[in-house]
Amino acid sequence: MKAVQDQVRELVRSVWSGHLGLSDDAPLLEGGVNAVDLRTLANLVEEQFIIDVHEDEIDDTHFGSIARLAAYVNAKLAALQTCRIGSAMVWHRDIPRDIPPLSSELLVPSSRDHDPDSTGTESAA
What's the whole-model pTM score? Predict the structure, then answer.
């Protein structure tokens, strides 16, 4: 699996209109990426990494360079992982501990489950 920064670099290059090479620390807005490209890039990031990008996060702090965008995506992914782990821990913690084990009676078929008139084979009509 590709590293997040490699995937982000590919996404940026898919919307980038510059003619020169783009380093990971180069400012995107000065390198040929405009505001419309940033919104497109945000949509691509949401689809690629299955994260939510809020409008107020599409700024130079988060989308200023490939390196900043990769750090932003990594932070979002880490937050999602923490939420998933936290939710699982809460769910397991909330399971009642006083549930009795299954009764063996539930595991053995009773006589009412068996039809004495049935032979176990279907008759031809």
Answer: 0.65
